[in-house]
Amino acid sequence: MELVRSTASGDSDVAAPAATDAPGCRRALEELISLTCPARAEELSERLFARFGSLGEAVSARSAERIELLEDSVEVEQTFLCFRRAMTQMLRGQLMQRPILSSDQLVLDYLRSRMAYEPIEQLRVLFLNANNELIADEVLGVGTVSAVHAWPREILKRCLDLEATAILLVHNHPSGCSRPSRADREMTERIAKAAKCLNVAVHDHLIVARNGTTSFRKAGWLR
Q1: What's this model's pTM, rounded to 2 decimal places?
Q2: Positive or negative CA dihedral for 164, 167, 172, 173?
């Protein structure tokens, strides 16, 4: 799944789906569907491509959205779920082999595949060592369709447990817009202030959404 950078009004670092190889995406979708439903593979792949625009977006989408287009074909949906798990594990494996930077395309791809289409807000924390290598990737807060609460104490407790020296905060916006709210900025300030007391660096706070990703660091809201 490729992302490209663009600039939108009010956003700092927006990553949006790149232009895709349409014939290649259609072919890949058709081959994936053919594993369980060869007779309708071409028809269903066209439906998915028309709705999502690429293989990556179709795989990352919520099950309910795919099933509606697949006409309740449970077998095909199971194939998509297995493929998504494999893709996520592949990206995670690559992350384990390099320093974690919020501007790294691989990091953005991984987070987008995990969170962009989630129906409720989640707060994910990537815990890093002194070399900015990934120690743990955990969801520490689950909220509603429009809000998620974070407890700095719990985040810092996990830092101590894991001996992490830095963290990368991430949460999603189910609305599709990555623009942060006032509550998002206040939450980030509280966590950063608490982390500073323990000499834990907050490298960035990323908001991931279907239509882009916003970096607090690049926006100047995190110093």
Answers
A1: 0.75
A2: positive
24-29 long-range contacts (CB < 8 A, ≥24 apart) are: 25/49, 25/53, 25/54, 25/55, 28/55, 29/55, 29/58
| Sequence-distant (≥ 6) Cβ neighbours of residue 198 within 8 angstroms | 156, 159, 160
Domain boundary among 71, 91, 111: 91
How many structural domains are present in the chain? 2
**End residue of a domain, out of 55, 72, 91:** 91
Question: pLDDT tens digit string along 64-94?
Answer: 889 889 887 889 999 999 998 888 888 888 8
Residue 175 contacts residue 216 (beta carbons within 8 Å):
no
The rounded Cα 67 to chain-centroid distance in angstroms is 21
**For tokens 């384990």, what's the residue?**
96
Lowest mean pLDDT among 106-110, 142-146, 181-185: 142-146
Range of the domain at 60: 3-91
Residue at token pair 């290598």: 133
The answer to whether the beta carbons of residues 101 and 158 sit under 8 Å apart is no
In a domain, 103, yes or no: no
Q: Six-digit token pair at 223?
A: 């110093």
